[in-house]
Amino acid sequence: MAIGLHKSDIKNPVANWIDQRLPVFTMIQKEYGTFPTPRNFNYFWNFGALAMINLLIMIATGIFLSMHYTAHTSMAFDSVERIMRDVNFGWLLRYVHANGASMFFIVVYIHIWRGLYYGSYKAPRELLWMLGVVIFLLMMATAFMGYVLPWGQMSFWGATVITNLFSAIPIIGQDIVIWLWGGFSVDNPTLSRFFSLHYLLPFVIFGVVFLHVAALHITGSNNPLGIEPKGPQDTLPFHPYYTAKDSVGMVAYFALFAILVFFMPNALGHPDNYIPANPLVTPPHIVPEWYFLPFYAVLRAVPDKLGGVLLMFASIAILFVLPWLDTSPVRSMRFRPLARPFLYTWLVSFFVLLYCGGKPADEPYVTISRVATAYYFLYFLVILPLLGRLERPLPLPESIARPVLRGGGPLPAGAMAKPMEKA
Amino acid sequence: MRSLRTIALAAGLLAGLGSGLAPAPARAAGEAPAPPNVRFSFDGIFGHFDYGAIQRGFAVYKQVCANCHAMHLLSYRNLRDIGLTEQQVASIAGSYQVQDGPNDEGQMFERPARPADRFKSPFANERAARAANNGAYPPDLSVISKAREGGADYLHALLTGYEDPPAGMTMMAGMNYNRYFPGHQIAMAAPLTSDGQVEYADGTKATVDQMSKDVSAFLQWAAEPEMEQRKAMGVKIVLFLTILGGLAYAVKRKVWADVH
Amino acid sequence: MADSVAQAAPASGETRRDFLSLVTASFAAVGVGALAWPFISSMNPARDVLALSTTDVELGPIATGSAVTVMWQGKPVFVRNRTEAEIEAARKVPLDQLKDPATDQSRVKAGKDNWLVVVGICTHLGCVPLGQKPTDPRGEYGGWFCPCHGSHYDTSGRIRKGPAPLDLAVPPYAFTGDKTIRIG
To answer: CATH code at B196?
Structure first.
């Protein structure tokens, strides 16, 4: 073996030659072939893979759409309609891309829920979690800019409202807004730069996803029991077990996606975005896309403009420090019977905020939003830190393999519960 | 399994909120009632276009609506897709003069439209349209069915919803009362007022309701010409995925048989 | 327990699993393949571009001896109503004198010999030759002259002098009426 070449075990001669010089095949074999994965995953663990598929679909459809789209205020709306009417399968590309954004957030919200419920954000996976929050923020920026591109009424006015938020920043706020706009209102310079950045960010997301998966492969995956695998008896090779299981989830995901795209392609959108943007006519209710509604509700819950902006960003920023707010030594909510209802209530408050975000900023929605916002922050800032110390969790099982082979659940009464696993 | 229960719970919550998710429609003070459901041929998973109705609807658009409303996203050649022949399309197009140029002298000139040209707009631009309509802009109708909550049902309701204002209501100058228009005051006077206003080539009786239904069907087609292909593809794909899903689940169970 | 179950009937179990996996994988492969088609097809000319793939020309307004230029598929097309003299001049040329031999008759439609329809792109390096306007130079053979590198075309659009290798291309066209043609 020449010095510097990788010692490859790959059988196929061509693949072996490549592998010796750039061990991609060895890497795939190690990270996706034989990678030891906890044997007790439930279907909640599908959603990371689904998010990756979704990202690839968005990039593919986006690239082909941009072959036909024109990012100029005088032509943007018409160029999208040309895609819908004249480009072969243009309507399909467009509807997959638009509904793919919704699917992306559905998948990622469930993926985040998995993390919250099973304590996947806890040590040693703090960085993995924070990279995930970065991905989420990048997704939101990408989706926001993407929605502006068709240049409909909601595109224009949503962009106006959200960019205007930055004027709340003291002293330099207005200058920042003018800098963002490239002018004195949302206009062609804004549209051009949003197109450029909307094309760029998904590749940044791709890079952070790479780091996210790399970090995961250092710590290994969490699992529904929240206890670390102790040996090979607790794990399975990723292939074929989780390739097979992920395939099932993938088909279900495509089926839901297909129902949206082919039978209700505009259900999650807003009719006003089929009206070309008019800077002189404001729609009666400016509503962002559904996946932004909870944060929109938080924004409007605060009567002060700057306060609302800060609290809205705080509602996402707080996720960064969650690993340190949650003081419990136990990861999975399965073994935290006191904390669990509080988490479910948090989920309810999230949906309440989502619902209120789509309603006009009148009573009773304002008061309800305030209550839900209060609970949202209370859960992270007060309940989790306190409960971690006050709660008496259920005894943790001995290992992953034992409950699976013996029929599940913690050890039978009388058996010594193992001391609390160091999280 | 517990996780399945949690997913079911989440799905139930999502589905329940699905209705609440529909963003607050553009209804100002004076909530307009929801438009009554019309059984259009294009409703539902297996919806299809009734090209007879759409051709009649095009006649209504051409003779009544096109005087004020543009449809600049449609081309005359699109009318082939609703069953008109090449000659019919060429003669419809040829009856309009469109601007072309500049010629070699640098001048713009008029020529008869060709099938490849877009539908001729009644006004040169939005300002001209407003000037001719007391400041109100007759919107372009190319995607109007997707731009209004209720779609074709709403369009039909609007066209048949002109009535006398209720007792005690003051109408603003030049406005007309319409039951289904948000705010109930619409600048457009009732465009379809008498039976037989449009003569139908296929002999169908042109009542106001019939003309409203037909033009709504036409506008639905104009907004979503791909609908039939889309739904047909959807049926095939969902069927394919159902079979593939069954197969994938069977493979999963087989692979996991020695573990469970 | 679980172990013994796994060992029982390994052969048939595995064959069944392999066949099932094969069917599933092929099904999935069909799906993935079908996925690629819309992307590829979307790059083909769109319907509005295809609608402009033919151009109709009214010949009535073109007087004898004059010519018009129309756009067809983004390219200029010369439509010339030739005089008797121009037709005769083209037909008198012996074929062995031509760099790209072609009879004049083969470049026009029978019974409509006065109408010459050629793509107005020089076959050398793609410039648009002069000769459409009465004030343009027509070169030494009365047809067209390309100012870029000095190619001369005759009254049948054939290359007679200069670096161009081929005659001006005759696009596909047909008479759709006595005084109308459809190009493309």
So the answer is: 1.10.760.10
Give yes or no: residues B217 and B244 share one domain.
no
Same domain? B179 vs B252:
no
Q: List CB contacts of C3: < 8 A, sequence separation 6 or more.
A: none
The 10 Å Cβ neighbour count of residue C98 is 16
CA distance A321 to A78: 45
Give the number of other CB atoms < 10 A from CB of residue C181: 20
Rounded to the nearest angstrom, the minimum Cα separation between A349 and chain C is 39
Do B143 and B211 have their domain in common? yes
Using a CB-CB cut-off of 8 Å, the residues of chain B touching A345 are: none
Are A189 and A197 contacting, i.e. CB atoms less than 8 angstroms apart?
A: no
Q: Are B140 and B216 within one domain?
A: yes
**Residue contact A251–B143, C-beta within 8 A:** no
pLDDT in tens, A240-254: 999 999 999 999 999
Confirm whether the ipTM is greater than 0.95.
no
Position B113 in a domain: no
- Per the structure block, which two tokens stand in for A342? 């509080």
Could you tell me if residue B135 is inside a domain?
A: yes
Query: B59 with B136, same domain?
Result: yes
Residue range of the domain that includes B253: 226-260
The domain total for chain B is 2
Instruction: Please write the tens of the pLDDT for every residue from B184-243.
Output: 999 999 999 999 999 999 999 999 999 999 999 999 999 999 999 999 999 999 999 999
**Distance from the C179 Cα atom to the nearest Cα atom in chain B, whole angstroms:** 17
Helix (H) or strand (E) segment spanning residue A386:
helix A384-390
Residue of chain A with shortest Cα separation from C51: A86
> Whole-model pTM above 0.90?
no
Say if B19 is an interface residue toward chain A (CB within 8 Å).
no
Q: Are both B188 and B253 inside the same structural domain?
A: no
Handedness of CA B152, B153, B154, B160 (dihedral sign): positive
* Among A271, A277, A104, residue whose Cα is nearest residue A190: A277
Same structural domain, B180 and B258:
no
Nearest to A275 by CA among B48, B172, B126, B184: B126
Q: Dihedral, CA atoms, C15, C19, C25, C27, nearest 10 degrees? A: -170
* H/E stretch holding C72: strand C67-72
B209 and B165, same structural domain?
yes
Q: Cβ–Cβ of A274/B238 closer than 8 Å?
A: no
Rounded to an integer, what distance in angstroms lies between the CA atom of residue A288 and that of residue A144? Answer: 9
- The C-alpha atoms of residue A225 and residue A403 are separated, in whole angstroms, by 10
Q: Phi and psi at residue C173, in whole multiples of 5°?
A: -150, 160
> What residues 74-93 of chain B have any CB closer than 8 A to a CB of chain C?
75, 77
**Residue among A6, A217, A359, A418 flagged as catalytic:** A217
User: Is B210 at the interface with chain C, CB within 8 A?
Assistant: no
Question: 3-state DSSP call for residue C181?
Answer: strand
